[in-house]
From TrEMBL:
Active site: 370 (phosphocysteine intermediate)
Pfam families: GRAM (PF02893), Myotub-related (PF06602)
Protein name: Myotubularin
Domain of life: Eukaryota
Recorded topology in the membrane: Peripheral membrane protein
Gene3D superfamilies, alphabetized: Pleckstrin-homology domain (PH domain)/Phosphotyrosine-binding domain (PTB)
Residues that hold substrate according to the record: 309-310, 370-376
Any GO BP annotation: muscle cell cellular homeostasis
Keywords: Cell membrane, Cell projection, Cytoplasm, Endosome, Hydrolase, Lipid metabolism, Membrane, Protein phosphatase
EC number, as in UniProt: 3.1.3.95
Enzyme class: hydrolase
InterPro entries: GRAM, Myotubularin, Myotubularin-like_Pase_dom, PH-like_dom_sf, Prot-tyrosine_phosphatase-like, Tyr_Pase_AS, Tyr_Pase_cat, Tyr_Pase_dom
Known catalytic reactions: 1,2-dioctanoyl-sn-glycero-3-phospho-(1D-myo-inositol-3,5-bisphosphate) + H2O = 1,2-dioctanoyl-sn-glycero-3-phospho-(1D-myo-inositol-5-phosphate) + phosphate; a 1,2-diacyl-sn-glycero-3-phospho-(1D-myo-inositol-3,5-bisphosphate) + H2O = a 1,2-diacyl-sn-glycero-3-phospho-(1D-myo-inositol-5-phosphate) + phosphate; a 1,2-diacyl-sn-glycero-3-phospho-(1D-myo-inositol-3-phosphate) + H2O = a 1,2-diacyl-sn-glycero-3-phospho-(1D-myo-inositol) + phosphate; 1,2-dioctanoyl-sn-glycero-3-phospho-(1-D-myo-inositol-3-phosphate) + H2O = 1,2-dioctanoyl-sn-glycero-3-phospho-(1D-myo-inositol) + phosphate
Amino acid sequence: MASPVSVYSPTPMADRFSSTSRESLKMELLADVSLLPGEERIIDKDIIYVCPFNRAVKGKVLITNYRLYFKSSEADVVMALDVPLGAICRVEKMGGASSRGENSYGLEITCKDMRNLRFALKQEGHSRRDIFELLFKHAFPLSHGLPLFAYMSQEKYGENGWNIYKPMDEFRRQGLPNSKWRVTFINNNYEVCDTYPTILAVPVKSKDEDLRRVAAFRSRGRIPVLSWIHRENQAVIARCSQPLVGMSGKRNKDDERYLDMIREANNTEKLTIYDARPSVNAVANKATGGGYEGDEYQNAELVFLDIQNIHVMRESLKKLKDIVYPNVEESHWLSSLESTHWLEHVKLVLSGAIQVADKVSSGNSVVVHCSDGWDRTAQLTSLAMLMLDSHYRTLRGFQVLIEKEWISFGHKFASFPTAFEFNERLLLTILDHLYSCCFGTFLYNCESARDQHVRSKTVSLWSLVNSRMEIYLNPFYTPESGRVLYPVASMRHLELWVTYYIRWNPRIRQQQQSPVEQRYMELLALRDEYLKKLEELQQSSSSRLANTPNTTSSTPPQPYTELHTPL
């Protein structure tokens, strides 16, 4: 499976190649590129890759309906770039016919995965016109009447990943429906909310006509519905969008009564409403018809979590990209990182999720929303559910969580060495294929748009993941069903995810295995050795018993000696 990789490895091999072999290398350069089923070659061309980490490298670029692939033709440089076209967000012409300077004429490509790529061509006869037009056309297929590659892919897997999440199965796992919560199909045709799933869990006391009236008072019709319920104390996490209060301070008795039904479901003394926004933003939203829950919501308390909106996050991420690609200035690293405010945003999201998890763990139901209940809401609910429910920390459970809280409802957490069944590779794979357009999993904005085409005509990312689960498993994983995780949301404990954000820089040394991790691996190997010896002893004992004649000896049987190991 192709993934966006960039490898640079200068190799002193020039003395091994004659001029003849160099020409042969050029001709066969792209012959060994393995295409995916359904992938088609569009164009290949001699080009120069202006490598930001070293020098300009001559080679050949191949454009397919899925990827941009570059390979060096220089004998002393081993380099390859493999970039899914879906990861490209901008293609621009660099320089003009009158440009002067080496490698000043060509293309500049901005990617969604923290990279900028520059390619140079010869300034003769509009040499870049064909590759620019074809790359632009296939990198943005919908704008040019072309199908997304996910619909062209013919990859086959042993498991159908579209079956990983079944809403009713997940509700039953949580113990729903029960005497306080019911399942409704009021949104079966996406009539109440076109960005919500068809199956929803709501209080038993609520009637469908109540839900319709509440939907009229919530942004985009995104009513408060159950995301997760605590099996012991029956406290719930409910999610929704902002109420449509507006500048005039409109009220809706149905909405107020409905939130009180959520509170009453487990006799919570006060329903906590977590508004992800800064309070000043929530007030400002009144000018556009939005707002927040005021004092009229009795038996409820409102808490603002001060998480900035998507526009502020994008600007912060742009600043982060500027300091990690292509070069990392280590002498001013900490101050540069601080100036991006990226870790501050991560800290606020993590801190908010901890508050949600702690409140629910102590028996109090909560409602979580931001403006429209998309990004910040899903971040908070999914992180809180990861902390509260160990099922979501398993490989398949995590897939369900993403399908449930992000994909179904219309859309990082710190690692804990033994708490998660999956490893970092899974997170990298998900992020890479978020943009690759190889799978249908992340296409479109909501379930109603996705249901019409995607499941029957594309492959799910989980088909890939579950076809080779062993590479995504964490060997340190220790199942603990009742354990709630409470990470420390402190700037002193937060670190930048180097493996993702700075992975393209070949000069950044990979972190060496920690002494704790190394010792853990040694213990795992020792455990396996003892288990093997135990198995051999049991087989030997069984063999001896089978060969011993049956006697009526009055000698009492000797007790087995337990085998004790350091583990």
